[in-house]
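Supplementary Note 3. Input sequence used for the single-chain structure prediction.
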Amino acid sequence: MASNHQRNDRQRGAPKRGDGRAGARPVAPGPAHAAGTGHRRRLEETRAEWLWGWHTVVAALANAARPTPKRLLATAERARALQAQFGGGLAVEIAETAAIGQILPPGAVHQGVGLRIPPLAPIDLDDLGADPGGVLIMLDQVTDPQNIGAIFRSAAAFGARGVILQDRHAPLLTGALAKAAAGAIDRVPHAREVNLSRALERLEGLGWRAVALDGEAPDALADVLDGTPTVLVLGAEGEGVRRLLREHCDALANIPMPGGFESLNVAAAAAVALYEASRPR
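The predicted structure, written as discrete structure tokens, is reproduced below.
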């Protein structure tokens, strides 16, 4: 976030790029290839449904808006704790720590629990923006799962009303993102929008004011916030909030940095901005 954030192969006899061999024609995928592609797709879809980490799994199980879990894995100790909290009727597969790790994506720090459950569905923007008050977060081209998860965690900590993501670029709220959020994705509602500029126009019609974080803005965030319902708009690191989206905002603001450091990670900037916006005006 910018705020206080290619030999030419066409030699005689050389194969052309993508041919595999000279003179080869494209070959339609055979049954084995198609089966392999389908298997990989199913594997990716399955992995996309997994949550792990104690707080993440507990929050998902406690969320009445979630669909029925497909599978719940836990060590014996974690299973006892889950059944004590959710009742003895909770279906849990007992597994060793290493066995759980083999089922989950590589590198998953699962803390003894893994939950396969369909991803959370977004809510409609008009529902998210109804009854204006407090703060919403809008993320423009922010795609890193760890950053988005941390932003959800800060949004929950400072009482944000919701998070607005780009529909085509933001990852699913599962896996590493959900782990970084530590359960916040089940506490903070989210919406997905294809066109963020139009989304701001709709929110303006509902009574919201948009403030974009921009390291080059002349005014500090504290001076721009006025206590009215506010959409804080944050952009990807390096590029910041895109020009067209900035033009749809009511104000631009920077995060003052008396220490002289050039920029903040987008998740850190979001935490600072949420803290500032949560202070009484």
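The first strand starts at residue 50 and ends at 52. The domain at 125-278 is CATH 3.40.1280.10 (Alpha/beta knot).
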